[in-house]
Amino acid sequence: MKLIYQHMLSFLLIIVTTVSIIGYAEIDYIKNQTYSQNFQRMESYATTIGDLATSENNGKSLLSDDFLNKLRFVLQGDDVNFRIFNAQNQQIYPKTNVPMRLPAKVFRTLKAGKEIQIRNNNVERYIGQTKSAYTGVLVPWNHGPGNLVGIIWIGSTVRNVEKPIMMAKRNLINALIVTIIVGIILSFLLAYYSTSKIKRLSKATEKVAAGDFDVQIPHKNSDEIDHLASNFNYMVRKLKKSNEEIEAQEKRRDQFMADAAHEMRTPLTTINGILEGLEYDAIPEESKPKSIALMSRETKRLIRLVNENLDYEKIRNNQIILYKTKFDAAKVLKDVTAQLQQNAAKANDQLELQVTDEIPIYADQDRFTQIMVNLIQNAIQFTRDGKILVTGKRLEHAAQISVIDNGIGMSAEQRKYIFERFFKADPSRARLGTGESGLGLAIVSSLIKQHGGKITVTSEEGKGSNFTITIYDKGYEQFVTEK
To answer: Which residues form the HAMP domain (predicted)?
Structure first.
């Protein structure tokens, strides 16, 4: 069954059930009230006739057959009938050929001075068979305490008493029919209002499943479905962002595979050519040392490419152990810049160091050296005929190192992915050396995170970049849990 029909049925059942309960309670109330009023009326008749029966005029009862006949004729116009019994439980009016008596149990109750109210005497339980079903009362007449004079049964036909009840039932049925019609209309409107929102969600979900992440559902935050729509919109935005990141990762992975294949193919081709030349004595004797040296450099280049990948995986998966000690970062920076001066000179770059005499730092010295080599080599790689400045200083409970260049710089989009694996800010400008695989900055970022430090980068296209790392003292590390 469709949801709209389920909602309609639910609303309709609630409305009909509520009206039925209220109607039943109202009919029951009217029924009780009607019978109660009838009993009061019959008791009033019985008491009045009883007062006449117990009164005397010259020693005679005021009730005579002629009077009772006239009274009976008058009351029959109102569908009221009565019977009178004497103190010996014999029916004395109207007179019958066969003696009529009240059941013994009923007579004993009346003789005890108790009144009996009868809703329906159709089972001959009280006064015997009657032509029509009657509701009435049996009232004893006493002349003084314990002195039973007679008993009167007076009642009205049930049909006459229940006329207001039947009218109330008809009104209830009419009201129920009107309620069902109105309920169907209202339930349809309410169900349509609710299910239309769900339909919008369903259609939007189908679009998302088909790959459309630009779907947004308008809502007013008025109920739970609107809240669900808001969460759906948030989810779609997150999915879109994730999808864009996945696509970007895929592009970088494809680029890395192409770069790695190119980087490996060049040295492997060189090594293979030299080996074939040596095999067939195609290389002159005086050129063999240079060929072997070239083959050695190309082999080391391949080993470095593989090692960087393995190193990154170990760092990323926390499979390395940091041996952190307190040492002088200024001395390490002087050694690193001295080692890389030759690489900077090849690019016609000026590599300068500006540090204080001593910069105490708490870190793994080997890994700190690796971080600085990668950062400075990255600056050399993307700076030509420029200047690279390395600065270092102490902060409160931390050491801060910056590598500043005036190279090609980066756009905002490039800065977003600069620490991602395989990413290259400008693959066309990459030159041989550490970092051409696109893993250098990813390794740097992972190592700094494991140290409990942080790295920031500011850059502008055509004006250069500024990489700043902060490594905190023992007890002040700032470890960030990635979600």
So the answer is: 192-244
